[in-house]
Please model this.
Amino acid sequence: MNIRTTDYLVFDGVTKRFGELPVVDAPFHLTIPRNQFVVFLGPSGCGKTTLMRMSGGLDTPSTGEIRLEGEPVGKPDQRRGMVFQSYSSFPWLTVGQNVAFGMRYRPDLSSKEKRRRTEHYLRLVGLHEFADTYPNRISGGMRQRVAIARTLAAGSEVLLMDEPFGALDAQRREQLQVELRRIQSEESRTVIFVTHDVEEAVFLADRIIMFSPRPTRIIADIDVTAELGATRTLALRDSDTFFHMKTKIIQAVREMEVAV
Ligand SMILES: Nc1ncnc2c1ncn2[C@@H]1O[C@H](COP(=O)(O)OP(=O)(O)O)[C@@H](O)[C@H]1O
Ligand SMILES: [Mg+2]
Model:
């Protein structure tokens, strides 16, 4: 039997309208192989969040279907971890407990391992000292970091991340980009990551899907790994190849904005 392992996450003729408003109008086709890091790059309001919500099962396409390994995506489940722009933590759990809560469906992890992971990811997002604090005592940006730690600790095989680093300062953002990329390659995750930041897109992506303004269609499908390779370090940011790739994409974004 010929199993097509490349057809892991599939958008098959997806469209979406809200009442009279077409968001994704031309049928949206995209096939994402397992373990690919895909970045959705597009202007504000083009429908990126809508696509992510549908991928997570929080909303349904008007037509077409999204499938994970051949199964239509249904309600949110543990296989797909989501970090969205606005995140609500559980106010009755401490920061540490919120992170650990992400691992509640991981009977394969011992309590000791769960504690280790909680500590590791809290340290990573710079909240180690706030493990015992309740979410209402920390800022919105810090709560977003709790969400990131929780999702990474949970170890979902698909990560759906909608501008997760938007509220972070530049340095922590870079650290988390490096770490996310490391986790993705070492632990074999498939990622869809939304951003409107070209530098972030180029640094993280194996592949960038560029969107037009609404009604949205794909205007470019860029193989970043073919040009930059799979290993991403901070040093790469200073390289000529990185700079050229970034410049090319910024130009494409400008041309698109002029064309509208
Ligand atoms: N639940 C909804 N009802 C009506 N319109 C919506 C809804 N969600 C999003 N929209 C509209 O759909 C368009 C795309 O939104 P969104 O997916 O959030 O864009 P992006 O994330 O790319 O900025 C916007 O015009 C937005 O106002
Ligand atoms: Mg959005």
